[in-house]
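Hi everyone, sorry if this is the wrong subforum. Our group has a chain we'd like a structural model of before ordering constructs, and none of us has done structure prediction before. Sequence below.
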Amino acid sequence: MSLHVLVLAGGSGTRLWPLSRAALPKHLLPIAPGGATLLRATVDRVQGLGESVHVVTAASQADLCAAELRAAGLGEDRVIAEPMARGTGPALGLAVAWIARDDPDALIASVHADHRVADADGYRSAVLASAGWAAASGGLATVGVTPTFAATGFGYIETAEDVAADGWTSPNPGAPGALQEQARALPAFRAAGFAEKPSEQVAAEYVAGGRHLWNLGLFAWPARFFLEDLERADPGLSAALQEIVALRAAGHEAAAAALYAAQANVPVEPLVLERTGRLTVVQASFT
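Answer:
Right subforum, don't worry. Here is the predicted structure as tokens:
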């Protein structure tokens, strides 16, 4: 089971307007340490965690993302372009189906391109830990951090019983030994579910209760598990994505784009992640 890292880089990134805008979103701005773009910094952080790194982005940003990959020493064929924006559900479904075409037993880790991270090793160990729990459980694993205040703009993950560290499986035995040990040592729990952007009162209860973590949007799963869950949740979308992958592989990009355009715009959380019956959450502490 080979680990493949997907970097989600498809947002319009207008929160930093006028610096960022649809044509030059946040993840393509040189605001990471050393003047790198956030995308380049993310790619550099996750290189070496698995067999490959792919960037999932909008077709309008594909050339800019390809240039960032070339600068990082990776091929531009690692860009998986969404023909038009249809949300993280179809985008991730397309990317996972594309990778599974060549590697049906692939293990996938999904990260965001626009996160600023001070503790790179802490981040890397958390991603590796989630991938290891996904491999061990055959299900979904995610990463959370302990909330420090009653944030209403973040999602939360409710934790249940903890899981034994000796059940963890390294997703990449070739990763540095110290990083693997750091990943193995991170606390992990069965997750009871997700809660999206609560009221201030509810958020305060989450913080006081000690059972909720902030949801960082870092996920890992076996490709087969994700695609099976997607098929159960939305058989029509699942079938369409498989057809789109086949059309693209045959060089029929226009037909693939037309079929993709017919799909609904939906986030991956309510589509797949919040419905899963197998969910492990890793408690990280990086900033």
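For your construct planning: The chain has one domain: 3-284. Strands lie at 3-8, 52-58, 79-82, 107-112, 140-145, 156-162, 188-195, 212-222, 279-284.
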